[in-house]
Amino acid sequence: MNKNVTQNAREFTRIPINLTVEVKSGDVVVKTDKTLDLSMKGIGIQVDQTLPRHSECTVRIFLGDEESGVSINVKGKVMRSTDSQMAIEFTKIDLDSYEYLQNLVMLNSHASHAAVEEEIHDHLGLKSRD
Questions:
Q1: This prediction's pTM
Q2: Residue (of 58, 96, 95, 94) closest to 77 by Cα position
């Protein structure tokens, strides 16, 4: 495990990035442009309306304007929820979205490319190789 991951006790490097995100769970749709952080494992967002903890959801992270249609699409689960913030763990991602996410994290990380590549190598998609 690399030093960056050990220091912050996280599996993946988090990047501070501001993107538009749409979260859907059942009939509820939450949309925000206030992203707190993003990693290969999940996303933190600031929202006006939150979903209950453990809610299963779909997450769409727009890479550009919404009309372009370019986005990262994942399934997830709400792991933390307060009055104005949610932390969502990614549970399933398609290959194209995984590659977009990997490139986004690598290009925006303060960690070295080698450190981020090591984190990704130590996992099979979203799961640890352990």
A1: 0.78
A2: 58
Q: Locate 106 and state its tokens.
A: 């690598």
Predicted confidence at residue 7, as pLDDT, reads: 41
The size of the chain, in residues, is 130
76-89 per-position pLDDT tens digit:
999 999 999 999 99
Please name the helix (run of DSSP H) or strand (run of DSSP E) that holds residue 14, with its range, or none. none
Q: What are phi and psi of 124, to 5 degrees?
A: -100, 95
SS3 of residue 107 by DSSP: helix
Residues of the chain with pLDDT under 70: 1-12, 110-130
Q: Give the distance, in angstroms, between the CA of residue 112 and the centroid of all CA atoms in the same chain.
A: 19
27 touches 129 (CB < 8 A):
no
Domains (range + CATH), the chain:
3-125 (2.40.10.220)
For 59, other C-beta atoms within 10 Å of its C-beta total: 24
